[in-house]
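re: ur question from yesterday

yeah so i grabbed the chain u mentioned. its 284 aa long if i counted rite. heres the sequnce exactly as i have it in my notes:
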Amino acid sequence: MQGAGDAEVRDRYSSEVVAIASEHPELLARYNVLVLLQPEDSISAFSLDQIYTALSATPARERDVLLVLLSRGGIIEPAYQISKLCKAYAREQFVVAVAREAKSAATLIALGADEIHMGPLGQLGPIDPQLGGHPALGVTQALQTIASLSQKHPGSSEMFARYLRMALTVEQIGYCDRVSESAVQYAERLLSSKPSIKSKASQIARGLVYEYKDHGFVIDFDEAQKHLGDGWVRTSTAELQLAEQLYRHFDWINLFFGFHRSKRMMALGSVSKPVAIVFEKGAA
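ran it thru and got these structure tokens back, copy pasting raw so excuse formatting
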């Protein structure tokens, strides 16, 4: 890692992922194992394309699908499609393994799984769509606060109005409400496919979008079981052991890129041929 170029490190990373996966032949026999490791990048249409490419490389429903997930969130539409795709390509079960964080849009992906495997440091999060890097619900709550302050202090209403005109457009304000309701609808559709919680799908979906006041709120194993049930959220499994190994390996290399080269890495696709991509820090 000290002397090699980025391409050599990426190739070495891919070969070592294959080696790690080969230590779990029973999982490889059962699952098409995928990784979506984007700790510093948002889930996007690019993520969707890479997952689709990996899934379509093998016949649909040949094996179950195991997705090792690491993400702080992103765009809800491709996240919803990733979840649906993984389920459609699975023979019987689509399983998500979360060694660390799978927040917001990544949580939406997990809601479409038949099982969510979480370690002691694993966490889901509120499904909180973003607007220009800011939580949509946070923008809505800020508008409510400004409206309340304007009522208490009528003389300041013009100042607040000028601030809003500079900060947000009318279209953006309307988008905040619509995108949050869209998140509820997507979550409800994924949850409704599960007979055991179909009657509570709407309640769970609204809770995951509106109940929590902070975008970064930690929904750990216990909290996830409270929402989703102990039959769905599992721990101490072979799938989680593999996810932990893949996470630690990826995190070490990404840490190296960050400190020594001011770069970041993401990894997407099948563990048999993961796509590792390196960006300059701050680059899109």
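noticed a couple things. The chain has a mean pLDDT of 86. also Residues 222 and 278 are 35 Å apart (CA to CA).
anyway ttyl
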